[in-house]
Amino acid sequence: MKPTTNTPNPVHTASNAPSAGTCGVERLTIRLDGLRFHACHGVSEQERRVGQDFTVSLRLDVVPDSRALADDQLDGTVNYADVYAHVRRQMAQPSRLVEHAAARIARSLLADFPAILAVHVTVLKDNPPAGADCCGMGVELTVGR
């Protein structure tokens, strides 16, 4: 005979009940995948002078908002074009390390978009000077509030 447990069913109180306007959405992630940039990041002087191609991908954990989910309003979400503009500005600033560029991107987005709870960013050098046959090398990091 299997032991029984007296675990109560969760009760939604006013503080933890899903909002009717958010359609029961507990987590919303916005994705921007495969953003391409030519930028001057790298340890070698040649990389910083000539530049190379990079691919940036983002996952943004955001506060679910009924204005977007139920009312179909842009002001209830994070504007993708504005996020892209932030990434473009950060990628235009040379860095020796892609780790530094990725961290700048994440910090910038958290500073300027209050609805973003966490940023997951990947920055890849498309053709790294490592002698490897690959689709890219780089970093992925997560920064939260």
Describe the structure.
Strands 1-2-3-4 form a 4-stranded antiparallel beta sheet. The chain is built from 4 helices and 4 strands, in the order βαβαααββ. Helix 3 packs antiparallel against helix 4. The model is unreliable at 1-18 (pLDDT under 50). It is of the alpha+beta class and 145 residues long.
Distance between the termini: 47 Å
Strand order of the largest sheet: 1-2-3-4
Strand content: 25-35%
Return the string of H and E elements.
EHEHHHEE
Mean pLDDT across all amino acids: 86
Helicity, as a percent range: 25-40%
Class derived from helix and strand content? alpha+beta
Determine Rg (CA atoms, Å): 20 Å
Q: How many H/I helices?
A: 4
The biggest sheet, with number of strands, parallel, antiparallel or mixed sense and barrel status, is: 4 strands, antiparallel
Gross morphology: elongated
Work out the number of β strands. Answer: 4
Low-confidence stretches: 1-18
Summarize this entry quickly.
With 145 residues, this protein is an alpha+beta fold.
Q: How is this fold's topology laid out?
A:
Elements: E1 28-39, H1 45-50, E2 52-62, H2 66-69, H3 80-91, H4 98-112, E3 116-125, E4 137-144
Antiparallel strand pairs: 1-2, 2-3, 3-4
Helix pairs in contact: 3-4
Protein traits:
4 helices, disordered N terminus, 4 strands, four-stranded antiparallel beta sheet, 145 residues, alpha+beta
